Amino acid sequence: MTLDYPLRFMPKFRQYVWGGRRLGTQLGKSIDAEGVFAESWEVVDHGEDQSVVAHGLLQGKTMAELVSLYGDQLFGRHPVAPQFPLLFKFLDANHDLSIQVHPDDKQGALLDPPDLGKTEAWVIMDAEPGARMYVGLKEWVDRDALARATAENRVVELMHTIEPQPGDCVFIPAQTVHALGKGLLVAEIQQSSNTTYRLFDWNRTDAAGNSRPLHIEQSLATIDFAKGPVPLQTPQAVAEGVERLVECDKFVLDRMRLGQSRQIGGDERFHIVSVLEGMVTVDHPAHPLQLNKGETFLLPAASVAVTLAPSGPATLLDMYLP
């Protein structure tokens, strides 16, 4: 069998205390009638967390099985990795997320079990008035200052804050302190890692009065205090209708604004493509797809190029390895 058609996966939902309902109301996800839903993992291969193919001859296969059975066809020009290296998700921050930090690859390799580091990027899809994100420490903050602020419950005072607008993008390298604030709906591309150290969780408790665990010493040991404040990304035009939002050693993140049909793929690399606005038909000779806002597909490296045909103006993200 050849891995040569665009793959849709069944989303995996995460219910965390800070979630809301916008994954259903704004992105059309089939969430339960009750409860809060924080994240929709669209493409993932991380231990027991596995995307499952939703259609076609490979329906029911997990991402780990695709990597094992069809690695060359999936990765193309890139070396076959033990796991799919990227994770793409949507997040509904109905409340503030914990102020946190993730290790880099070297630090992640020392964990038991070992994990990748977590470099990530956010694209803001919706922002309520006054919504904030906390991205990096203020320039003067060192380890001692942050340790004192942690003990005195003043971590937020030391954070660099931005009030983003829809369409803004921020790049969060591993070892950078950060948090999404309440009122944000976000698309996130990241390394396939789920290692998170919480530095501060807004003094939240559950119904029984219990706080979520914090990881103060791990956080202080992980943070790169030379990074300082994180600015918004400045999009760079790379082709007609295409902006480069992020280019790093872990992934490339492009935004496509489509008013007419455009081809993608056929370049010996995989592409994760997600619709942020509008509706798009993916023209493949054997497996055409129609995608609405909030829907995602993976185009394997072995696939022929496909045509993206928008029904009116559409905005998409295109994510791939450098």
UniProtKB/TrEMBL annotation:
Gene3D superfamilies per UniProt: Jelly Rolls
Keywords recorded for this protein, A-Z: Isomerase, Metal-binding, Zinc
SUPFAM superfamilies: RmlC-like cupins (SSF51182)
Mannose-6-phosphate isomerase cupin domain ranges (all copies): 244-308
GO terms of biological process kind: carbohydrate metabolic process; GDP-mannose biosynthetic process
Pfam family, one: PMI_typeI_cat
Cofactor annotation remark: Binds 1 zinc ion per subunit.
Active-site residues (renumbered): R198
Binding site for Zn(2+): H102, E120, H178
Residues covered by the Phosphomannose isomerase type I catalytic domain: 8-111
Signal peptide: none
Cofactor(s) the protein requires to work: Zn(2+)
InterPro entries linked to this entry: Carb_Metab_Reg_Kinase/Isom, Man6P_isomerase_Firm_short, Mannose-6-P_Isomerase, MPI_cupin_dom, PMI_typeI_cat, RmlC-like_jellyroll, RmlC_Cupin_sf
Keyword Nuclease attributed: no
GO molecular function: mannose-6-phosphate isomerase activity; zinc ion binding
Descriptive protein name: Phosphohexomutase
Gene: yvyI
